[in-house]
Amino acid sequence: PLALGLYTVNAVYGDTITMPCRLEVPDGLMFGKWKYEMPNGSPVFIAFRSSTKKNVQYDDVPDYKDRLSLSENYTLSIKNARISDEKRFVCMLVTEDDVSEEPTIVKVFKQPSQPEILHQADFLETEKLQMLGECVARESYPAGNVTWYKNGKVLQPVEEVVVINLQKIVDKSTGLFTMTSSLQYMPTKEDANAKFSCIVTYYGPSGQKTIQSEPVVFDVHYPTEKVTIQVLSQSSTIKEGDNITLKCSGNGNPPPQEFLFYIPGETEGIRSSDTYVMTDVRRNATGEYKCSLTDKSMMDSTTITVHYLDLQLTPSGEVTKQIGEALPVSCTISSSRNATVFWIKDNTRMQTSPSFSSLQYQDAGNYICETTLQEVEGLKKRKTLKLIVEGKPQIKMTKKTNTNKMSKTIVCHVEGFPKPAVQWTVTGSGSIINKAKETKYVNGKFSSKIVIAPEENVTLTCIAENQLERTVTSLNVSAISIPEYDEPEDRNDDNSEKVNDQAKLIVGIVVGLLLAALVAGVVYWLYVKKSKTASKHVDKDLGNIEENKKLEENNHKSET
Question: Where is this protein chiefly located (predicted)?
Answer without folding.
Answer: membrane
